[in-house]
Write a structure and sequence with these properties.
This protein has one domain: 2-Layer Sandwich (Alpha-Beta Plaits), CATH 3.30.70. The longest helix is centred in the first third of the chain and has 18 residues. The radius of gyration is 14 Å and the shape is globular. It is an alpha+beta fold. Helix content is 37%, strand content 28%. Strands 2-3-1-4 form a four-stranded antiparallel β-sheet, with helices on one face. Helix 1 packs antiparallel against helix 3. Strand 2 and strand 3 form a beta hairpin.
Length: 106
């Protein structure tokens, strides 16, 4: 399992455009991509313009499928809503390591 932690800063005047686009991507990822087992969007408690994405994919093929999906294109089209660099961390899931745990509700 591949986990991704992404941090973005949103331009305050474009927050709603950002939220609309990331909702399409997050929901589409979990509903339409068998290889995406989690896509959470979180808002920072200290800064309403900072958001985090927590994404979990089965493997690199699932990540590639995500980037080719129509809902990802919606998200990419909203890139102008972001301010400053995007921070990304990629990890390998250690616990739980059982794929059945991650995919039980798919």
């Amino acid at each position: 399992m591949i986990a991704k932690w992404v941090k973005v800063r949103v331009k305050p005047d474009m927050r709603q455009k950002f939220l609309d686009a990331i909702e399409v991507d997050a929901l589409g990822s979990e509903q339409d991509e068998p290889g995406c087992v989690r896509f959470n969007v979180l808002q920072d408690d200290a800064d309403e313009n900072v958001y985090y994405f927590y994404e979990v994919y089965r493997d690199e093929a699932a990540v590639a499928a995500h980037r080719a999906a129509p809902h990802y294109a919606v998200w990419k089209a909203a890139a102008d809503t972001l301010e400053g660099p995007t921070e990304r961390v990629e990890c390998t899931a250690v616990f739980p390591s059982d794929e059945a745990y991650w995919t039980r509700n798919k």
